[in-house]
Amino acid sequence: MILPPQRDPRLTTVRRGGTLTDADHRLLALWAAACAEHVLPLVEAERPDDHRPRAALEAVRGWVRGEVGMMASRAAGGHAMGAARDLRGAPRWAAYACGQAACVAHVAAHDLGAAAYALKAVRAAAGPQGSQAAEAAGRAECAWQRARLPEAVRELVLADQERRNPLCWDLFHT
User: What letters, b where the CB count within 10 A reaches 16 and e where it falls short, cover 82-108?
Assistant: First the structure.
């Protein structure tokens, strides 16, 4: 479970009693989609005919543009996570990253889920758990993700990574 028992009001939209603006919510969704898309080839190489992970990313980007409803994006995320269930290793984590990204439309805090699962995918693709290759790949992916953080939400995401790192398998390197 990557969501904490108590929600951070900074990641809860204003209309739900938090402080997150719609504009920043959309930025979080786009960042999560970028993190997931970076590992999408890992699942597509394994299952080229399963379009659910890619459709999830298209759905959340459509939500950002106002073309797709929140429930449709969330449902697409569920379908992408369904695609992950019978996979193993890097393709599985990549599909989960896509699913988490689409669910950001529903709960902004899923942004870290997309990033964390993308990190798991990259590490799994690089080598056995705990190997130097996997660790190096994880550090490089974390840096790649952080380099793409929109400035408006950068501090929010970095603080959230620090706070939720133990829930996210300690994948976010500082």
Answer: ebbeebeebbbbbbbbbbbbbbbbbbb
